[in-house]
Each structure stands twice: as structure tokens, then as C-alpha cells.
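Sequence, C-alpha cells quoted for completeness.
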Amino acid sequence: MSGITLLVEDPNWRIHRGLQARLKQAAEAARRAARLKGGFCILLSDDKTLRRLNRDFRGKNKATNVLSFPGADGYAGDIAIAHGVTKGEAQAAGKKFIDHAAHLVVHGVLHLAGYDHERPKDAKVMEPLEVKILKRLGIADPYKAAA
């Protein structure tokens, strides 16, 4: 699993037993499935940081669950995830926090690999790949559960 760096900025991420290993496992599974080359970093942060990043880079002044920043020159990029938003979404959907966080990591890695979901045509490619990766990790289809 070399080349995947996990940075824990918000201590709330540390209270979840086995989370960091699970997130690295999810990141590696997504990297293999997408044939993503190069290392990347996953920042486990708080809502305030994700709000600032979302505002500064996307012009949206609100916290979001996950952001991906593609890299260059052999570096795949960076992913940032907000603890509070992730926790709230997991609770609202009746999902385990660790499973939802793993889904967000897979989602972020696929964005680094060039996948997108803004247009329905693109979502029809990206979402089934997410579901396939998550199934390999023993995580239920997040889109089916949300329907």
C-alpha cells in the first residue's frame, strides 16, 4: 500500500477503531480498479477546513464531505474528507461511519483517476465502479441504500 499517505488533522478521526487501516484498504482497492498511477494523500480533517477548501477552490461556501485535487508530474493528487459531514451523512442514512468514510475515499480516488459524476452519462460510469469496489470490501451499495 505504498504511495498512499493518510494525514489525520482532526482528532475525531482517531476515535474510530480500525478506521485508518480500512481507509488505506479502500484507497488501494480503488487505485487498483481505476489503474491510478502515482502516490496520493488523504487528509482526514474537519468541516471548517473542508468549507474553506470548498469555498477557495470551488466557490461554494459550505462544508462538503469529500474533495479531490488531481496532481501532476507522477503525483496523483490529494483528497480531503470532513469528519462532521461524514458522520452526519452516515447517521442520516443509517450506515456505519467506517463504511461511509471508506466510500468517500473510493469516490475521491476515482476522481483523482479522472472519473466524474456531474453529468448523468458520467455518473453511469463512475457509480457502478464505486459499487463494484465497495462490494469487494464488503460494503453495501450506497446508491441503492439511498434510494
User: Anything to note?
Assistant: Residues 120-136 form the longest helix (17 residues). The helical segments are 19-34, 47-58, 83-93, 97-112, 120-136, 142-146.
